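Lay summary. Proteins are chains of building blocks that fold into shapes, and those shapes determine what they do. In this project we predict the shape from the chain. Here is one chain we studied, written as its sequence of building blocks.
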Amino acid sequence: MIKSKETSHRTYNKLLSVSKVQYSGLACVIFLLFIVHTSISEAQVLSYPKTIIPVPHPVTSLLRAKTVHKELGLLESEINEADKIVSEFELPLWRLRDLPLHKRNAEAAPLINQLYRKLDWILSYRQLEQLDQLVMQVRGIDVILEAKVTIKLDLSPEQTNTIRDILNTSYSKITSLRNNVETSSQSQIAAHIQKLQAETRRNILAVLNSYQQNNFAVLMGRSFDFSQVPSIACKAPELEVDKWINSSPVKLSELVGKVTVVHFYAFGCSNCISTLPYYNDWYKHFPKSSFYIIGIHRPETKQERDIEKVKDKASQADIEYPVAIDNQSLTWDSWANNIWPGIYIIDKNGFIRYWWYGELNWQGAESEKFLRDKIRELIDES
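And here is the predicted shape, written in a compact code that computers can read:
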């Protein structure tokens, strides 16, 4: 079931996250986010855009990582100030994730500029330069077409066009991979994309002369190990509901120490109905001491607004975990969710780490196993 302005859930039936795959240096997630958020159809032929502002933005995740604090040489007071700044901007940025690219760029750009202006008050020039290098490493080779990079490398028009053609080809192939998610597992898709990104990087670097290659290496900075950078999107917004099934009101702030799944559904949504048994299985499988699950029932039809019917349908589906009634769409809007089912995984510190749109295991895809593995990883995370 999709909001009228949205596309079919099949387009969205894939993982959206700031996963650690992003931090490999290949930065394939930048392409993944763009592909999904533009709500493309398989028939569309797209060209690589001039600007992609990734949402969530790497700078917010980086500034929450202890290894990055150490790399930048931040004092405890600077870490605390940086955390306040990140907290101010990461949620507004995350809410832009599903907007069409041009609109997302337009709204994200001033937020990123404000964030950096505030960082300028607490970080030295050298620290800001190092942070910018880390962001570029995360984003990967696609940053080469950004204005500040092309100017510093003194790329000729011919080189720029050639690089854009290479990126167009790579982008088209990745689009095809993502649209064929039903025929491949997430691990297979990730492996194909990493291989493609490595080839794209080699082809682009071959376009540069030795002087430009050296300059590009200097711009990117010393290689950094991102394996210990956690995959944080933002602090999960609090649930703005006052009617509950199976529970008294629940606050996410009270669930610190537990990995929490929040899923949006409507009882008349066929894709939701097919996915509900997986939530029940998670609820029974994972220990209550370290795992929690909350359903957010946000109706689309008039009959789905009837709370007694919601209760009956929940009972018929054997739902034992808490369900919030979001008839006013307050939580739906606060989370900028646009689709049923919408599934979010929150870590033990209250940060959104992964999210998924669409029916789990659609046409044999291994999405349920993928998310279950992520839940287990977060439960085991120190």
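What the prediction tells us: DSSP finds 15 helices and eight strands in the chain.
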